[in-house]
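Customer escalation, tier 2.

The customer says the design service returned an amino acid string that "doesn't look like it belongs to this structure." They asked us to rerun it and document both sides in this ticket. The original structure tokens are below, unchanged.
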């Protein structure tokens, strides 16, 4: 592809001297599990997210799973999830033995529709798990109000929303626990797997800290049946370097998104709707069109990469056959899966590439 969907090599090359030095520092430190690099990153990440606490973990799925465990969500409980999300959101609920209860999105934002949540709440509902899909913040105020009314927790899946803001405040501490992935392709990406939670609740931070390390505060003394899900200090050192550039790299994404908007507003494609209260992180720039398959093929012929997030909704995956949800029971999730297309996006995408992709898309009509 002349214009790849995402160029992770370019991100490394821009910061190579800094990243190489940070990795060497971690290697030479003699600390290879937890320790000062992880603690420093946790402090810096909490501050960036305007949150009181951060706990570094092995990946984003573990962040969601340990957040639910810390809230004592388990077998027999239900957790409300978006019907339209990456399957990890659902898998975390299943991993603790609870049942994911899907709620359809607002068709304009693709995020969970707060107006549909209350009807899905039962006596077993233990938590709401909104996702800030594509880096567009979900409408948190009504979600938090519903949670307060029913005395249930809010866990946010912020794996795509690094640096996004909701009503001026950074995503990171609105709900009880906010879960992050630093998978390499995310807006803040490690050079391997990594994740974290942020929270204002000291009790939950402490619980997750315990759970990530075998349920042990003191070596060989195990208070609970914990997991091994520690953030790797080498990845923490890399993340500290990249965090210092996150603001600037998010700004580049904003500029590119604005250029797509400007170029494509004359087309008949459905473009991302940004509510007035949202400052998205632009993890993905997702358009919608009924001729998605033809459009993607046309882009590929022109050397332009694109991806589908996501081609099969969780309820239609073989993995979730046991829940027995009919494909048509969640028509919007199904329809979005057939119509969405993610255009090239990333801090190293050139303005000229956005122009070229835009031209190719207009020529396809
Ligand atoms: C990436 C992602 C995850 C999982 O993160 P990993 O670090 O890959 O485990 C969870 N939810 C969403 C919405 C994601 O995009």
């Amino acid at each position: 592809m002349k214009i790849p969907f995402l160029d992770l090599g370019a991100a490394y090359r821009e910061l190579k001297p800094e990243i190489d030095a940070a990795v060497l520092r971690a290697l030479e430190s003699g600390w290879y599990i937890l320790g000062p690099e992880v603690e420093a990153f946790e402090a810096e990440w909490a501050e960036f997210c305007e949150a009181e606490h951060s706990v570094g973990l092995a990946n984003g799925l573990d962040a969601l799973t340990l957040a639910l465990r810390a809230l004592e969500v388990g077998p027999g409980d239900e957790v409300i999830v978006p019907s339209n999300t990456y399957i990890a959101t659902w898998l975390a609920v299943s991993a603790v033995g609870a049942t994911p209860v899907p709620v359809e999105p607002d068709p304009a934002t693709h995020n969970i529709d707060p107006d549909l949540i209350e009807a899905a709440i039962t006596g077993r509902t233990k938590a709401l798990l909104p996702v800030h899909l594509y880096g567009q913040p979900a409408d948190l105020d009504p979600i938090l109000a519903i949670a307060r009314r029913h005395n249930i927790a809010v866990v946010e899946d912020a794996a795509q929303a690094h640096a996004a803001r909701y009503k001026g405040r950074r995503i990171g501490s609105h709900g009880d626990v906010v879960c992050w992935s630093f998978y390499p392709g995310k807006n803040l990406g490690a050079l391997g797997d990594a994740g974290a939670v942020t929270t204002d609740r000291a009790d939950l931070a402490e619980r997750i800290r315990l759970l990530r390390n075998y349920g042990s505060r003191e070596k060989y003394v195990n208070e609970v049946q914990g997991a091994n899900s520690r953030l790797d200090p080498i990845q923490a050192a890399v993340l500290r370097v990249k965090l210092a550039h996150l603001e600037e790299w998010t700004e580049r994404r904003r500029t590119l998104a604005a250029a797509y908007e400007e170029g494509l507003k004359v087309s008949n494609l459905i473009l991302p709707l940004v509510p007035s209260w949202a400052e998205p992180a632009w993890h993905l720039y997702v358009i919608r069109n009924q001729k998605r398959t033809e459009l993607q093929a046309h882009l590929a012929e022109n050397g332009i990469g694109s991806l589908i997030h996501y081609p099969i909704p969780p309820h239609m995956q073989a993995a979730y056959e046991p829940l027995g949800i009919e494909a048509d029971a969640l028509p919007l999730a199904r329809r979005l899966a057939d119509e969405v297309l993610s255009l090239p996006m990333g801090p190293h995408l050139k303005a000229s590439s956005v122009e070229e992709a835009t031209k190719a898309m207009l020529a396809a009509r």
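Tier 2 assessment: The sequence is consistent with the input. The pocket of pyridoxal-5'-phosphate is lined by residues 59-61, 85-86, 88-89, 131, 157, 159-160, 181, 183, 193, 195 (CB under 6 Å). The mean pLDDT is 97. Sent an explanation to the customer and offered a walkthrough call.
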